[in-house]
Amino acid sequence: RSSAYPTSPNPTAAPAPAPITPAITPAQISIGNGSDEILRSLMLATCLNGAGSILVASPTFSMYAILAQALGIAVVDAGRNPETFEINLTAAQAAIDAPRPDQPPVRTVFVVHPNSPTANALTAAEIDWLRSLSDRILVVVDEAYFEFSGHTLAAEVLTRSNWVITRTFSKAFRLAAHRVGYSIASPEVTSVLENLRLPYNLPSLSQAAALVAMQNRAALLALVPQMLEERDRLATELCTLPQLKLYPSQANFFFAQLQAQNPNPQDPKTQAYLGQILQSMKQQGTMLRHTGNGLRISLGTPEENQRMLARLQQVLADHV
Length: 320
Fold this sequence. Notes:
Blueprint: E1 29-33, H1 34-47, E2 53-56, H2 63-70, E3 75-77, H3 89-97, E4 106-112, H4 124-132, E5 138-142, H5 146-149, E6 163-168, E7 180-185, H6 187-196, H7 204-215, H8 217-221, H9 224-238, E8 244-246, E9 253-258, H10 268-283, E10 289-291, E11 294-298, H11 302-319
Helix pairs in contact: 1-2, 9-11, 10-11
């Protein structure tokens, strides 16, 4: 009923939205108004009022820095290898061991697995580094694209009380407009998240949509292999464009840079080209994103992908 306030989200109301380690219990799951609410709550719990900084590795999901800056929390950026997009672990460890005098110590590390916008999964070395961190540092692994990569670190929360996994219904479950996300963590961390969660945080319609998605998860997830086949087909097509350097993807999008980006992808001329490409594509009705000194190309339907490909081929020929 629209006249009634929504009830609190209940993790026990339906099966988990995707396979999770069987030992995970409802007491280890918190449901948020999108993953963003959960990310914000984790920052509130660990870093507010100068208690700590967050560590990220750009290019990555921009919401970490946006939320931190809105809360007055310092952001430490370790950066990534420009060729492989692996986290600069040397810089990351140095930021933890020897924080700048004007910054609080790192209290929370945020990583995406696979990363956005570069679509690469965490390497064994990166995972080992995360495991090596002190239990005084919260490790947040954002698995928004888990259903496409098949890689999960959810089992880590069974033995590491300082780890949190976040996931979303926005991607494989196609509920982006309903803003439903969830976390997997120790009961202690989950209790903190529940205490910080605002009352009525998830509208009734969003809860109903998520419940239907969970009840039909087998049918929804059965479409993922088809999407991965289409991803591989589109990757083959994109690789034929001589102006683009396409990177391998373990998500439902691609990251590409202009081949002309030499030696520095941040070159003003290259950035101007990217802006022209995006504007031309937008005028034709296709939206790409300029991020991480490259293009983020989302996977659509086969028809949408072919239309995008034809437009991009022409635009690149005109501008590059």
